[in-house]
Amino acid sequence: MKSPGLRIYAIAYLIFLYAPIILLPIFAFNDNKIIAFPLSGFTTEWFSEMWNDTALWRAFTNSMIISTSVATLSTLLGLFAARATTRFQFPAKAPIMGLVMLPLVLPEMILAMSLIVVLLAIGVDLSIKTIILGHVLICTPFAVAILTSAFQSLDRSLEEAAYDLGEGTVSTFMRIILPLVLPGIISSFLITFTISLDEFIIAYFLGGSDVVLSAYIFGQFRFPAKVPAMLALGTCLVLISITLLAIAEYFRRRGIAKVGGKDAGGFL
After folding, report:
1. How do residues 31-63 score in pLDDT, each as one tens digit?
2. Which of 40-49, 106-115, 165-174, 226-235 shows the lowest per-residue confidence on average (mean pLDDT)?
3. Rounded mean pLDDT of 14-25?
4. Does the domain formed by 55-258 have CATH 1.20.910.10?
5. Which residue stretches of 88-107 are H helix?
6. From CA 67, how far away is CA 138, in angstroms rounded?
7. Which of 115, 153, 164, 244 is the most exposed place for a label (fewest CB within 10 A)?
């Protein structure tokens, strides 16, 4: 029996969750520096101000370098881990994979503090490289989860048939396995790219003098006059994130359909 109370709770929860996101574009186009109702009028001034902010573009460039590097490294590490855990049996397999997935459940504040203590203790200067290191740590479990699902949905008989026909291990992987898991690889890259782009705590702790986009936005909210431009930037980032997630979901579903699997739900 359907519960009216549960339905009301679900609707209220969704409103609470998504109302702030809906308010972003509303105030980004509002002709007033004060973020409050009633609205004053329509303007694109804040988008122009955002576009002409040179400091913002430096932070954006840093974030693009970090996110692209993190997505590439995390996906490669996730590819190796997913292949190993679905294809081979080795000692301490479960504990090792548990350690790989541990950052999913650890608070980012704890990870950030631990990393900064270790890095400073061994004399490593904080920079873009240390942010990449921290982001790879938290993004790799997501890549492993996505790619493990992709490898588990493969038909093992296809690989065995390739071996029977004389193909080697490398050629079988490149010609048979890789094309089938490619949608999962693309999905993993896009998801980890989005996570790295949006992440703040580790970037703030490990960035040193190199400011990334999330830390720049946080700093700008101290100045009321800068808030509308940051709302305009937030609107653009929401659109980018939704687009990347939609593309990732498309490739995830395409990968499942390609191997004849059953879709049990995804990112969207």
Report:
1. 877 777 777 778 888 888 888 888 888 988 999
2. 165-174
3. 81
4. no
5. 93-101
6. 12
7. 164
Which residues 6+ apart lie within 8 Å of 176 measured at CB?
A: 158, 159, 162, 167
**157: its two tokens:** 């008989």
| Residue showing tokens 């653009």 | 236
CA distance 153 to 262: 9
Residue type, 29: F
Neighbour-count burial for 194-209, b at 16+ CB within 10 Å, e otherwise: bbbbebebbbbbbbee
Note if the pTM is more than 0.90: no
In the chain, ranges of CATH 1.10.3720.10 domains: 55-258
* Number of Cα atoms under 13 Å in the Cβ half of residue 202: 30
- What average pLDDT is seen over the chain? 81
Other CB atoms within a 10 A radius of the CB of residue 12 amount to 10
> Cα separation of 10 and 48, whole Å?
38
Q: Which helix (H) or strand (E) holds 145?
A: helix 128-152
Contact 27, 233 (CB under 8 A): no
